[in-house]
Amino acid sequence: MLFDLDGTLFKTESLLVTVQRRVFETLREEGLYTEPEPPIERLLGSLGMLLDHIWLRVMPDGSTEARQRANELLLQYELEELEAGVGELYEWVPETLRTLKERGIRLFVASNGLESYVKEVPRLRGIGDLFEGFYSAGEYETATKAELVRLLLEKHGIRSAWMIGDRSSDVDAGLRNGLFVVGCDYAGFRKEGELDGSGAVIREFPELLTLLDAAAEA
């Protein structure tokens, strides 16, 4: 099973509200962006995109320098806040992942985020040891989620897998690589129709176990 991170395992808004405020306070102090702070919904609605595309959407009126600095600050403040205990996993994520691993399922993370963020969130929230690998666009410099997933599958010789995520990029990545796609409909900031094409949609994380049982009986 290949898991997206934000909006799938990690309740990103529990971290980003604080982080975005700090990012724009610093940009303002440094004179790089003087407009009002954008609504947090714009950032949350951009999750799943590559970072360069996120900042173009969040502050289209910002300079290239401001967006590059925002990238640096985002990672710095995310890691600081995570270390301080800010940010939480969705309910039942640790328990469900442990059950899956006990059943012999190989677990991976595949995210369009930065390398250190994608590795540190699971580690700092106590689930890092459950995963066989962490794949990020930041580390592998992939242009799409589909490309990242293809690389993961090839590297580990995986022929059959599930892609689990909350964004259209996850659905696309799964379908383009011939995987069964499970759409996660509990994050609250997806667009209408974003999970179209999923083989199944769950509204609570433990429903994965029910799907697995049903697949085993089929």
Question: What would your notes on this structure say?
Answer:
By secondary structure, the chain is an alpha/beta fold. It has two domains: 2-11 and 88-217, 3-Layer(aba) Sandwich (Rossmann fold), CATH 3.40.50; 13-83. 49% of the residues lie in helices and 12% in strands. It contains ten helices and eight strands. It has helices spanning 13-29, 40-44, 51-58, 64-83, 93-102, 115-124, 137-140, 145-156, 168-176, 207-217; strands at 2-3, 10-11, 88-89, 108-111, 133-136, 162-165, 180-184, 200-202. The strands form two sheets. The chain has a six-stranded parallel beta sheet, sandwiched between helices. Strands 2-3 form a two-stranded antiparallel sheet. Helix 1 packs across helix 4 (64-83). The longest helix has 20 residues, at 64-83. It is globular. The mean pLDDT is 95.
Question: How would you concisely characterize the structure shown here?
Answer:
With 218 residues, the protein is of the alpha/beta class. The protein contains ten helices and eight strands. The strands form two sheets. The chain has a six-stranded parallel beta sheet with strand order 5-4-1-6-7-8, sandwiched between helices. Strands 2-3 form a two-stranded antiparallel ribbon.
Jot down its keywords.
single chain; 218 residues; Rossmann fold; 2 domains; two-stranded antiparallel sheet
- Indicate the proportion of strand residues: 5-15%
Summarize model confidence as the mean pLDDT: 95
| Radius of gyration based on Cα positions | 17 Å
Could you say how many structural domains there are in total?
2
| Net shape | globular
The proportion of residues forming helix, as a percent range, comes to: 40-55%
How many extended strands? 8
Specify the structural class.
alpha/beta
CATH topology of the largest domain: Rossmann fold
Tell me about the largest β-sheet: 6 strands, parallel
Give the helices and strands as they follow along the chain: EEHHHHEHEHEHHEHEEH
Low-confidence region ranges: none
Terminal residue distance: 18 Å
Let me know the CATH homologous superfamily of the largest domain: HAD superfamily/HAD-like
Helix segment count?
10
Quickly give the CATH architecture of the largest domain.
3-Layer(aba) Sandwich
Sheet with the most strands: spatial strand order: 5-4-1-6-7-8
